[in-house]
Model the fold of this input.
Amino acid sequence: MKKTLIALAMGAAMATTAISSALAANIGVSVARFDDNGLTVMRTGMTEHVKTLEGVDLQMEDAQDDVAKQLDQINNFIASGVDAIIVNAVDTNATEAMTKAAAAASVPLVYVNRQPINMETLPDGQAFVASNEIESGTLEAFQVCRNLRAAGKSGGAKGYVLMGQLSNQAAVQRTKDVEDVVGMDMCNFMKVIDKQTAEWSRDKAQDLMANWLSSGEEFDFVLANNDEMAIGAIQAMKAAGLDMKVIEVGGVDATADALVAMQAGDLDVTVFQDLAGQGAGAIDTAIKLSKGESVDKTVFIPFKLVTPNNISDFIK
Amino acid sequence: MADTSHGTGGVSFDSKKRSWPNELNIFFALIVIVCLFEVAGQLLPYMKGQSMLFDFNTNRDGTILNMARLKIMILQVAIIGIISLGVTQVIILGGIDLSSGPLVGAAAMVVMSFAQTELVNGNPNPKAVFGEWAFDLPVMIPILVGLAFGAFIGAINGGLIAYTRIPPFIATLGMFLICRGIAQWWTRGKPVSFPTDSFASLGSGMMPVVWFGGLAFIFHFILKYTVYGKHTYAIGSNEDAARMSGINIKRHKVLVYVIASMLAATAAIVLSSKNLTAQSGMGQFYELFAIAMAVIGGVSLTGGRGSIIGTVLGACVFGVIQSGFTYVKLDAFYQLMAMGTIIISAVVLDQWRQNSSSR
Done:
């Protein structure tokens, strides 16, 4: 009697696992930081997209900006037998170990948003979904350059650059993009007075901008690595009574707050990184890989320039 | 007047032993730091002889002082300064509070959810947390909700420390993680923005400095002249002696932690109002900077010694250094290293001075 019961119970358990694995994909996701605004948009993009899919289960983990923790999470995913893993890398230099761990267990791995250092050597069953980072800072700085020319300042314009966390690839790249644009023949009238980090934060950008303002030096543009810092700079400039019509301010991300600032005429340029699209794209890529379908090594979700002319396309 | 609040729990002491109030030393250190930056400004070729505090050439504000820089120096430390007023009391009590930074993040999220406005530029608020009932509430509601939240967290901190007798470091470390979790859980990590005008006015312009100054004045008075203050110093100097003399130690500890957390919640209100947004990552490292301000201001981590005036001066030291770094265009890498060096040397100097004066 007892044996039959156990057999029945085991049979039932096996049947349920069989059914669930036939229908569903279990995807483990490790995100660099839960409290980062942009990554939150991406994360929400994933959960929203999964709601539209049948039988896909997401398990989200917060790596809390800790490389070691992220690798542990990936190994835990592998140990618990997920069908695919999505990684938003804390440190893009540390992805080789993740690639190896996933490849050894033949679990598909998708990097999202931040480009892994071993991009060139990614094995089969692994892919990268993101926007091409070079586009964002270039689009931003070039549009500000064009606006300045249109305002008749091609004789010479000075300004400040607000950088994100210096350990972050996007901050380094976007700052370099600005420098590249400023080095172009068409835009070399622009001169950067100083560049400092405000660590992506509105609060720190406010203080940094106020410190710059206290030097009394005249300037024409402010280029921030993200919108939060651009908004912080705008708040400091408005507090100091500067005319925001005269000063060109650029950011990246096109967050809801930034679009409001643009409607108010304070922010002039931002760049929309389709983070929700990246999240959804990562899910789709992970599902395809888990089914054994082939995908491109790199799936690019394009950046879009946002100015007062086309802002209505981005307000939901 | 001899400062009676040092070391001996409010009992007057031999004035010869310390003829020189500690606060005066910090004040001199502040002046020395300003002078160093001024000299650097004159010597560094790329500064073109620009001055840090003065503005002789353009006369922008109608004075020879560079008012903009004087303002930002205080403004940028005012909010952490509000936290450090509470941290000062906790450290004088002989404790430590690591939870204040994440508490700022959590309280800001909670407060801002009750301070949202319905229409932004004529469009519905894209960041609404609750339904329609939570829009355009009177400004007292988010303030009271924030203070109540702070008091609740503080009561848990204090209760754990007083009644289960676990070390304050551990209790508040646990609360550090809990509060960061609350901050992220509240909206699943999404920022909360667009407050009502009345809420926005709480932290606009120089208001953070007004809050900091006002609260510093009040707590200076409370610590120096009330029973609450005397008991705090007494417990921090010698807990057993304080118990013998009939102080209700447990109740007093809870009270101090509640007040410290309410001050951190106040900082959260001012910060979210200043930034017009609340984000779960707000307040990162605030707890450490608040402790550092108090320590630079002469508050002893062994308890029983320190003052609000010292902490305010400690905050000023931070403000001057931060502005000074930007003024001489020092890169961020060096800024962190220099900041660390200054904190360590301040404490070493203080120890050294205490040892030599006690001999």
Remarks:
- Chain A is about 45% helix and 20% strand.
- Residues 134-273 of chain A form a domain with the Rossmann fold fold (CATH 3.40.50.2300).
- Residues 11-23 of chain A have pLDDT under 50 and may be disordered.
